[in-house]
Amino acid sequence: MDTEERIPASIAPEDAVAQRYARDRVTAQQAQLLAEQIAFGPVLFQTARVLLGRGTLESLAERADGYTLPELAQKAKLSEYAMRVLLESALTAGIVLHHDDRWLLGKVGWFLLRSAMTRVNINFVHDVCYQGLFSLEESLEEGRPVGLKHFGTWDTIYQGLSQLPPTVLESWLAFDHYYSDQSFGQALSIVFARPVHRLLDVGGNTGRWALRCVQHSPEVRVTIMDLPGQLGIMQKQVAQLPGGDRIDGYAADMLDAGLCFPKGYDAVWMSQFLDCFSVDDAQRIVERAAESLAKDSRLYILEPLWDRQRYETASFSQTQISPYFTTMANGCSKLFDSGTLLGIVSRAGLELESMTDGLGVGHSLLCCRLKG
């Protein structure tokens, strides 16, 4: 099912913004409907989430001729009143259809039910972001994640990851892993096209990339550089897994102005890492990474760049993630556009050796080396 607008092959990815967003592409009637969908967005979101959670969409997917209202109410263990409220809300959004007194699954409902990306996003928004986003404006004004107060008193969500409620942590990790993991297979072939015996994984989180590396190459040893709390989670994750004995930890606070990166690595890897910092902090981190590089070593940066997406849905999803960083994560970062990230690389004394788009569900991999 490939019905979505995409960039023509003759158009460079960085030209997509000019092509997609320089003019209105909807009629006045479509714009009015979209405005109302935005106004009632939180209502529709919860309607869809309940229909998913109660198994109603799954039931509708199982029968082409659908179900009656009483049948669906009984399956969901809700009153007919409650089920009608949900179904009528969903009906006008295309989630369900209604014909001959029977309810059927609509195309929107199919994607809500079957798209892994959509399900991950729904759980992430509900469990991690929903309540905190009420504080978006305050977070924007103060430059700190005011919404994080719903979970703890940390300055950033990363400091408190290991202490988040289990359901919240599960949704956070599922979100993080979904977007990164699917790009790892393609990234491995690029990184290990050069000899790599020692790899520094900066912000390695739970060690999923490090595990892929040691299982891909029996010669590589990986050092994960991250906060002490994160390293504790990582060590539990990798301890009994094949290759785990070739993964070490290096405790570090990336915002420590006196921090120097360890040297002697063939490759320095950053996956969905720099977007956790302000542009200024990301600049300083890349500069310190550059100082640690030898002539023949490389810095690899894996990021979802919203202006280099083939499909418009990916650009939309990625730009909606940025308010999470503002309200819940740190108050000062966002997902990058390519121009901002390439500017950071250049100012750090690095040059772009290659840039590969379209890894996984929308990542770009930058391979950088020292200039000259």
From TrEMBL:
One of its GO terms (biological process) is methylation. Coiled coil: none annotated. It holds the Pfam family Dimerisation2-like_dom. Residues 190-315 form the O-methyltransferase C-terminal domain. InterPro entries: BVU_1015-like_N, COMT-like, COMT_C, SAM-dependent_MTases_sf, WH-like_DNA-bd_sf, WH_DNA-bd_sf. Residues 32-103 form the BVU-1015-like N-terminal dimerisation-like domain. The keyword S-adenosyl-L-methionine applies. Signal peptide: none annotated. GO terms for molecular function: O-methyltransferase activity. The keyword Transferase applies. Keywords: Methyltransferase, S-adenosyl-L-methionine, Transferase. This is Methyltransferase.
